[in-house]
Amino acid sequence: MTVPKREKTMQKALKDTLLSIPNNVIIGATIAHGAPSHFVSKLQRIDWLGEQIELGRLTIDQVSSAKPVVASQPTAIDTAKLDALESVANRAHAYALQGLDLSRSVETAVTTIAGDMASTRMAIDQLAKAQAASVVDTSKVDAEVASAIAKAFAPFKQAVIDANAQEAVASGVAATVVDRKTALDVFGVNVIDNKGNQVWVDVWNASDAPAIDPNFVWSEGILRHLLLSQYTSENLWFGGEKGTGKSETARQFAARTGRSYTRINFHKYSTAEDYCGSIGLENGATVFKRGAFLTAFASPSTVILLDEISNCAAGELAPLNGFLEPNSAVNYGGQVHRRARGVMVCAADNTLTNGDQSGRYADTRQMNSSLADRFARVIKFEYLSADDEAEALIRHTGCHQALATHVVAAINAARAKVETGDVIDAPSIRSAIAFIRSLNMLSVDEAWHSAVTARQPSESAAALDAIKAAYINPADVAQWI
């Protein structure tokens, strides 16, 4: 229907009047009089108000006298995140099609991402509109955006895994934080800080994160140190007897939080070039090639484990002094190396930085005090309690609880003999797991010998066999397996 010229003129005059009213008053009027929540621009609100005035439901005075409401501004936040999202998508597309040649499935997955991008933008726009009349909760925006990104990239991630090209993609696309969850959700341990608040955990999307071991038993005390260091970036020193879970704790922390994981094993002949890198030829040019440590050091999210570091000579460890400082920027090999976001460094050793006082760990050294000082906290790992160790055996082997308790009693008796010098090395939980698993095919004597005593010196083996005779009852074992 054609609108008469006079009516058009009236509409324009009304619109001009509304346009002259401050935006925060317009927002207040639309909220006060029940405008639809998806109206977020001033023009949308003015059109709605003009319609209500023409229908006689409102007056100009009611609009102009409305209580002002300050508009929130999620647009800038979301625009920046959408730009970042599209940038990552473009990089993933380029790596997939130009550099990786992963297979047709990857191309299909990238096409799927392109479609998902529209859905992602729509979801973020809806979030912004829903918050238009309230204060923006940036943490909620971050979580929603991260979740949308993770969902959009899920098909691409699976295609890369199917094509066995995780390493190639990981080298080109850096990991990012995609979610935040409570420690209870991530680790099954309800960690509460000293103010009574639940502790939150950053969850990353590293494509090469290690596999989660659902049977791993967490110690709340040790977990607190790791969760603290995720915020402070402080280095940790894990010390204690072999078999107390030092290395696996670092690996499983990386697994549960979606981080990359790099383990560097040190020995008496390790050199700085071995782990930091060295000058070499590449395509006929002389270049510095990063070693495992510096590669991980520059890769966001990575948990780096310096394993048995006290075996290495102090001079070869000297470069670590600079790298392990807060906010480090170290010139090494003609390049400046900086710690990437989220990188955590842990040392795992049988000593507590001050050398081996038991005499059982040959070739270990007391750490240079400068290097030892780079580790903010030294955490002594102990064997699990009898109940927790039995639970771990049950989880890993599926054995009867009575059998797990039976074996733990024998293992703890062996550990007590270490203190008296009758046994050189106590059996670890790995040995206990191996013993229980062997019982399905071997006799008690054969299982104990191959899993526990065969690796021991003769005097230790004799003591361990005596413990087996005293603590392991073949008749009871037979009814539990």
Note down, in words, how this protein is organized.
The chain is α/β, with parallel strands linked by helices and 481 residues long. It has four domains: 5-64, no CATH class; 74-173; 200-381, Rossmann fold (3-Layer(aba) Sandwich), CATH 3.40.50; 386-480. Helix content is 53%, strand content 12%. The protein contains 22 helices and eleven strands. It has helices at residues 5-19, 23-32, 42-54, 60-64, 74-100, 104-130, 138-162, 166-172, 183-187, 220-232, 246-256, 272-276, 292-297, 314-317, 320-323, 369-372, 386-397, 401-420, 429-438, 444-453, 458-471, 474-480, and strands at 177-182, 200-204, 235-240, 261-265, 277-282, 285-290, 303-307, 329-332, 335-338, 344-349, 375-381. Strands 4-7-10-3-11 form a five-stranded parallel β-sheet. Strand 5 and strand 6 (285-290) form a beta hairpin. The chain is elongated, with a radius of gyration of 31 Å. Residues 1-7, 73-77 and 97-104 have low confidence and may be disordered.
Could you give a quick summary of the protein structure above?
By secondary structure, the protein is α/β, with parallel strands linked by helices. It contains 22 helices and 11 strands.
The tally of structural domains comes to 4
Q: Can you summarize the main beta sheet?
A: 5 strands, parallel
The residue ranges in which pLDDT falls below 50 over 5 or more consecutive positions are 1-7, 73-77, 97-104
Tally the helices: 22
Gross CATH architecture of the largest domain: 3-Layer(aba) Sandwich
As for the CATH topology of the largest domain, it is: Rossmann fold
